[in-house]
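TICKET: design request
STATUS: open
ATTACHED STRUCTURE:
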């Protein structure tokens, strides 16, 4: 076996090796570093399966969140026992875990009824895992490459039509041109979604987050026209600190340890 063949199988040796006492979020970070850092092109299906298996094993406490239902008579508090009390949050909240040039990790926490409107992920691979609660997802892929003049828009095909995802659901994945790259979330109950974005959004590098309005086409079931809109004024996302296990970041991480 030559060196390049050996490097190819390192992630899969790691997959089967003992976790060596690493936290699950550390395991996720290390795997993302292996798969995404400094790599050209898209991950292989084996790598995607590896990341999904790690995500499927994650629970709210692994990222510093208590996802259990609060007693009705308990005063609304933001945290308890060193964890963010997810079900006490009254507005959409993003818990930033990590971001580097190659990927980002974070958690969107939703109160019941909150909606993250239609938005895209240009050139990105996105893995999402519901940690608690349930959420309805609508997603689309461009059917015709979108025009960008005067604003981005075009014809899309429905990929997920109000599909309900819950903590028991497997992690989902979308790709730059498939899998539902444009999506919206509506929280059916208080819920949280752990997201991995690779690469992260970047206005400077041509990966802005664009929001869209939707006009269904009555005569063409499963298709809609999307048009770029300004950031919705009623979209407010609060920030909350990450309270989970400390991440050990290795700028020289090469997948071997
Ligand atoms: Fe998204």
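STATUS: resolved
RESOLUTION: sequence designed for all positions
ATTACHED SEQUENCE:
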């Amino acid at each position: 076996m030559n060196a390049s063949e050996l490097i190819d199988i390192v992630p899969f040796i790691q997959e089967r090796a003992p976790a060596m006492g690493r936290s699950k979020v550390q395991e996720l970070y290390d795997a993302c570093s292996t798969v995404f850092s400094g790599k050209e092109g898209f991950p292989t299906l084996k790598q995607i399966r590896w990341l999904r298996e790690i995500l499927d094993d994650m629970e709210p406490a692994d990222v510093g969140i208590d996802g259990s239902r609060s007693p009705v008579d308990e005063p609304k508090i933001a945290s308890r026992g060193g964890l963010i009390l997810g079900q006490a949050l009254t507005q959409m909240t993003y818990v930033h875990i990590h971001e580097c040039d190659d990927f980002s990790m974070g958690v969107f926490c939703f109160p019941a009824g909150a909606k993250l409107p239609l938005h895209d992920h240009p050139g990105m691979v996105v893995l999402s895992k519901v940690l608690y609660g349930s959420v309805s997802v609508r997603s689309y892929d461009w059917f015709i490459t979108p025009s960008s003049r005067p604003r981005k828009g075009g014809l899309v095909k429905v990929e997920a039509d109000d599909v309900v995802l819950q903590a028991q659901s497997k992690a989902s994945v979308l790709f730059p041109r498939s899998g539902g790259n444009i999506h919206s979330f509506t929280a059916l109950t208080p819920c949280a979604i752990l997201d991995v974005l690779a690469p992260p959004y970047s206005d400077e590098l041509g990966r802005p987050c664009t929001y869209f309005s939707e006009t269904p086409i009555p005569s063409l079931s499963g298709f809609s026209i999307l048009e770029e809109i300004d950031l919705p004024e009623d979209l407010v996302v609060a920030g909350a600190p990450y309270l989970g296990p400390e991440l050990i970041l290795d700028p020289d991480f090469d997948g071997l340890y």
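CLOSING REMARK: The first helix runs from residue 3 to 16. The mean pLDDT is 87.
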